[in-house]
């Protein structure tokens, strides 16, 4: 009898190795040079976004943009191992899948797969999975952040349509979107948690205004970093067919993407920040020697490295729990919490180690591409998107079974 | 990729768990805290009969040649007690040290005795007024014809009272790593061991007064090779120790969750208070950090991958996690947690006792950085 061993690594078959060769050759032929350079003007940002979308469409045509999504809905129907290969090969080019900011394929589509009707799946999913549309999520409002169930935006039924009025905040990125998904109140007199519904909306509908915000950071890296928007809805008429998961059932529907956003899906990948930080410390000299030869610096680097390793292992564990369909409880919000706290703590550790050079984007005196300055900002800002650190703790406590009289179950993600 | 225990390991886990319920219940463990050795002889014999003392010893030397992950499953369950006694000292650290450092003749002579439980070994490394590392080994090995003479002391030697034999790290030359490992029969004339009192468990001062050591007691038969053997042995033994601490953290976590669900103040279970939840969240984050760094290191070792950096990392994370998990548990329990009868304090004392054991976290952090070639 062959007894399987605990294994922290994916082992690849010959067929999978051939797939890797094919993917690598494809990326080498199709990734435009300079695509990962940080744009320095809105024009450059837009041009870069178009390059990334174009790459997304090409990947989508092969079923490689959202490899695990079902083929019948425009995905690749590939298994976890092939998906990991695709992600690792994209990662070699400092890209991820999708190669642009999108919460349609990552969070919206899995939600529709769980909750949508067959017709909705056929309508919404293929364009997302093929990279033909970019989609943003619209959740927070000026008066509803951590208390997401307290959203005020209304969606009142009028014949075959819902009429949307309200305001959403901290949304998206630069360069606009094609579709949006959101939750809004469909029963203003209804009980909390039973008064909201989930919608997929065409962003070009009349009455939608997108207004950029001026923020310390977006909480994310990438080509469109640092950019979020406020979105106003004024008598926006949305077809009733865009409501997913049943009227007033939106809170349950939201549990799917909230679970994914809180880290439930897990993550595998290398720690780019660490690699860049280490080479930065090797190259930076202070008092005549590289930073990496200073004992205090080495000790702090060890602490930074350790937090990165624990974050990686939590991500790996969650990935395994999800795709091996193992029972999952508090692990999603735990990953999210740990990553947030480690990121914030790291701003201090990096500032102490590298010094004020970590705070400037100056091409001569700052870090390469200003990546450390970016971390100094986003370590703070990233504490809040997708649920604040405090909300992750509340969520963990409920799942552990101490926050409420009944233990809360994790959201359904597959 | 598969992070689950295999079928065989799950069965082992179940049998250790039911053994612990029968033979090392909370009451038994609490009662043994103030004993000389921390364990009962009949428990020792049963564990030896079950083959658990020889788990890591190859079959040719009287053991069962299991993987380190198998041993970790066993020790994680022991840690939930926490079961005290020289199980790790003899069955893991000493056994692997003899395997790494001994000649084949020594392995054949010593390992079956360890596996059967007839002899109990412990490794004595640290010394008074000395730091951890090869420079900390000063106890000199004096040559006297075909034998050696030992004069001096070792400090913080685990399970020295229970042990029948000591593997003593001694200085045999002036080069930094000129260290040898010699086996000393605890019955030998001039050996005196004394448990240290206080907030630590079964750590002893061992004095050597003109102790005669035969040349055949030199592990490996050659001088000055002890430190590198010891480091190789530690690389394999440490993650098993970490698993023992993971088990302790797991028990402390379950204890704290249960207490916060049942203890009521202000008319509600205290788990409803977010201040209390914060302690439990902190606790489980430490527990899981320790668990997954430990099991990844074990996987690397069992699958023959370079594991040095991962082992140092697991030791750092686990030493700190164990201490912090117990601190958080004391916050959850408040007063009752400090009552010895309740069962939390053996874990807390263990977390302190093991903090510096086999190298303090800072030393391992620096070794990790070196192993990663920064």
Secondary-structure blueprint of this entry?
The complex is a heterodimer of chains A (414) and B (374).
Chain A: H1 14-30, H2 42-61, H3 80-92, H4 104-115, H5 118-129, E1 135-138, E2 154-158, E3 161-171, E4 179-185, E5 196-202, E6 208-212, E7 229-239, E8 243-244, H6 250-264, H7 272-283, E9 285-286, E10 289-290, H8 295-323, H9 331-354, H10 371-381, H11 389-400
Parallel strand pairs in A: 1-4
Antiparallel strand pairs in A: 2-3, 3-7, 4-5, 5-8, 6-7, 9-10
Helix pairs in contact in A: 1-3, 4-5, 4-6, 6-9, 8-9, 9-10, 9-11
Chain B: H1 7-23, H2 26-32, H3 41-49, H4 68-80, H5 87-101, H6 104-116, E1 121-124, E2 141-144, E3 147-158, E4 165-171, E5 179-185, E6 191-195, E7 203-214, H7 226-262, E8 264-265, E9 268-269, H8 274-302, H9 308-333, H10 345-353, H11 361-371
Parallel strand pairs in B: 1-4
Antiparallel strand pairs in B: 2-3, 3-7, 4-5, 6-7, 8-9
Helix pairs in contact in B: 1-4, 4-7, 5-6, 5-7, 7-8, 7-9, 8-9, 9-10, 9-11
């Amino acid at each position: 009898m062959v007894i399987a061993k605990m294994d922290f690594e994916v082992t690849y078959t010959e067929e999978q190795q051939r797939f890797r060769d094919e993917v690598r050759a494809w990326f080498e032929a199709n990734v435009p040079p300079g695509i990962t350079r940080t744009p320095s003007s809105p024009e450059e940002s837009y041009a870069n976004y178009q390059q990334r979308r174009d790459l997304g469409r090409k990947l989508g045509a092969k079923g490689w943009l959202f490899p695990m999504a079902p083929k019948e809905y425009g995905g690749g129907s590939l298994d976890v191992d092939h998906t990991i290969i695709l992600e690792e090969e994209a990662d070699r080019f400092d890209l991820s899948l999708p190669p642009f900011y999108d919460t349609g394929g990552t969070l919206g589509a899995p939600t529709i797969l769980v909750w949508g009707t067959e017709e909705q799946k056929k309508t919404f999913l293929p364009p997302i999975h093929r990279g033909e549309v970019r989609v943003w999520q619209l959740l927070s409002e000026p008066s509803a952040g951590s208390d997401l169930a307290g959203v005020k935006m209304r969606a009142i039924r009028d014949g075959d349509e819902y009429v949307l009025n309200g305001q959403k905040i901290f949304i998206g990125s630069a360069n606009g979107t094609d579709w949006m998904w959101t939750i809004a109140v469909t029963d203003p007199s209804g009980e909390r948690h039973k008064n909201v519904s989930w919608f997929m909306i065409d962003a070009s509908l009349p009455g939608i205004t997108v207004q950029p915000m001026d923020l310390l950071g977006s909480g994310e890296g990438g080509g469109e970093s640092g950019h979020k928007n406020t979105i106003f809805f004024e008598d926006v008429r949305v077809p009733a067919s865009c409501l997913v998961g049943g009227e007033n059932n939106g809170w349950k529907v939201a549990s799917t993407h909230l679970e994914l956003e809180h880290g439930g899906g897990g993550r595998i990948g290398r720690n780019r920040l660490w690699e860049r930080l280490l080479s930065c410390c090797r190259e930076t000299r202070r008092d005549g020697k590289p930073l990496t030869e200073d004992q205090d610096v080495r000790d702090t680097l060890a602490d930074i490295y350790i937090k990165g390793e624990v974050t990686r292992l939590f991500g790996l564990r969650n990935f395994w729990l999800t795709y091996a369909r193992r029972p999952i409880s508090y692990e999603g919000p735990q990953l999210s919490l740990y990553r947030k706290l480690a990121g914030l703590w790291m701003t201090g550790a990096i500032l102490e180690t590298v010094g004020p050079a970590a705070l400037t984007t100056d091409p001569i005196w700052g870090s390469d591409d200003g990546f450390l300055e970016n971390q100094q900002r986003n370590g703070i800002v990233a504490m809040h998107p997708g649920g604040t650190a405090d909300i992750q703790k509340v969520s963990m406590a409920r799942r552990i079974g101490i926050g409420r009289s009944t233990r809360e179950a994790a959201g359904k993600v597959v | 990729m598969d992070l689950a225990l295999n079928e065989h390991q799950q069965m082992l886990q179940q049998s250790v768990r039911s053994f612990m319920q029968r033979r090392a219940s909370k009451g038994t463990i609490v009662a043994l805290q103030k004993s000389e050795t921390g364990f009962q002889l009949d428990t020792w014999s049963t564990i030896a009969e079950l083959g658990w003392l020889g788990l890591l010893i190859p079959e040719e030397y009287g053991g069962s040649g299991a993987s380190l992950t198998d041993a970790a499953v066993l020790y994680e369950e022991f840690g939930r007690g926490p079961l005290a006694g020289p199980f790790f000292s003899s069955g893991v650290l000493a056994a692997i040290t003899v395997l790494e450092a001994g000649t084949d003749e020594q392995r054949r002579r010593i390992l079956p005795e360890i596996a059967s439980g007839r002899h109990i070994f412990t490794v004595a490394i640290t010394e008074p007024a000395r730091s951890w590392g090869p420079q900390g080994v000063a106890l000199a090995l004096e040559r006297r014809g075909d034998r050696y003479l030992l004069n001096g002391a070792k400090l913080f030697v685990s399970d020295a009272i229970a042990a029948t034999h000591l593997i003593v790290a001694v200085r045999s030359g002036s080069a930094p790593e000129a260290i040898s490992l010699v086996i000393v029969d605890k019955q030998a004339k001039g050996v005196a061991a004394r448990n240290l009192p206080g907030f630590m468990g079964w750590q002893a001062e061992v004095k050597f007064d003109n102790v005669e050591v035969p040349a055949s007691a030199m592990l490996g038969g050659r001088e000055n090779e002890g430190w590198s053997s010891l480091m190789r042995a530690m690389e394999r033994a440490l993650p098993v120790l970490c698993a023992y601490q993971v088990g302790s953290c797991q028990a402390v976590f379950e204890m704290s969750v249960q207490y916060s669900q049942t203890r009521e103040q202000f008319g509600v279970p205290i788990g409803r208070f977010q201040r209390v939840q914060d302690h439990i969240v902190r606790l489980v984050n430490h527990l899981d950090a320790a668990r997954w760094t430990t099991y990844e290191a074990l996987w690397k070792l069992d699958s023959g991958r370079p594991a040095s950096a991962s082992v140092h990392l697991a030791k750092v994370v686990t030493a700190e996690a164990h201490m912090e998990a117990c601190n958080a548990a004391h916050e959850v329990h408040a007063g009752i947690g400090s009552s010895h009868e309740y069962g939390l304090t053996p874990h807390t004392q263990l977390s302190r006792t093991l903090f510096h054991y086999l190298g303090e976290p800072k030393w391992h952090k620096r070794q990790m950085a070196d192993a990663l070639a920064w």
